[in-house]
Amino acid sequence: MKKETKEGLVFYLNRIRETMTSLGKWLLLAVVSGCVVGGISTLFAFVLTKVTVFRQENNWVFYFLPAAGLVIVFLYQTFGKDDGGANQVFATIASRDSVPLRAAPLVFISTALTHLTGGSAGREGAVIQLGGSIGNQLGRWLPLDEEDRHVMVMCGMSAAFAALFGTPMAAAVFAMEVVSVGVMYYTALVPCVIASLIASNFAAGMGIHPEVFHVSHIPALTIESGIKVGIVGLGCAVVSILFCLALKGVASGYKKWLKNPYIRVVAASALIIGITLLLHTTDYMGASTGLIEKAIEEGEARPLDFLWKLILTAITMKAGFKGGEIVPSFCIGATFGCVLGTLLGMEPSICAAAGMVAVFCGVTNCPLTSILIAFELFGFEGVAYYLIAVSISYAASGYYGLYKEQTILYSKYKAKYVNHRTKT
Hints:
The chain is mainly α. 70% of the residues lie in helices and 3% in strands. Strand 2 and strand 3 form a beta hairpin.
């Protein structure tokens, strides 16, 4: 055998060994991440379910919202002054920060208190931080370099998201897509997928089942229905920008007029209680999944449901309460889509479903994740409508977003490298 041939064979054998070693390593780490994060996230989902049921059966607990806010502020002033929320997780992946392990118990307790007392908040921001902090700590305990620890953070994010929402496809892609718009972290594909599947199945085995919505009627796609759902997508882009601006505006107002965090959270709680009493409904408390279900499955929503959910979420989240803005964005999008679909003479159920994922896309700049969420929650029958709404919302929502640490690497409008942060 010629020397060149032998050297070439050795080279390829070494490459195969390195590839299989890397694959085996990440399969093992993904299993560990999926089991650990999946288990803790399942407990988190169980606790949130229990406190929500307790609140719904005991409306008086809502009046303890100011007390819960004071406890949350005290915890973060004492133990988490450097806490950056979900943004800190994204900054860790981009090597600009490091999310500490103590973020996990802090956000666990604080989110449970927020949901127990009726703050208008979701849970995904908490679960991203929960999974990211645990993944980061696992990476520190194991002999991994900085780049591999970043992948472990994404594994943790995926596993937590999948356990809580039961959408493993979307969870895996979200962790790779959300940090840098225009660039996917394909290195993390295998570990994120495996961790998501394990965590999702773990949660399902423990009785935590995903929210699956039945779209009551999906009309055949025509030019007319395509244009109408395109209008829904455009409207959702405007609403997503409004949501981001509301969050920013409320945060600025708090910093200007209510600088003391304890006074701020009490004043915000009083405002939330006052608005809720004036509206004579508890529908906007917590994640408001009941409004989402009614809009999608029954095609019913009040004209201002989306606006009140938007306002109350901004007041709640920027006051110091914990949870997240993504599930509220689902509610805002579903109720807005339902109302706009009715005005356009379009089936409100499909418009609500399309609106839900379109607003999510607008606030996260994650079109692939949005489409996968639609597939996993609604099925594949209405795929054309979801694709139209998501793509138009992505293009029309500009460079706004929920997360200041999210980077827009490539322009949405042309093949151009821009590399700037989202407008939050």
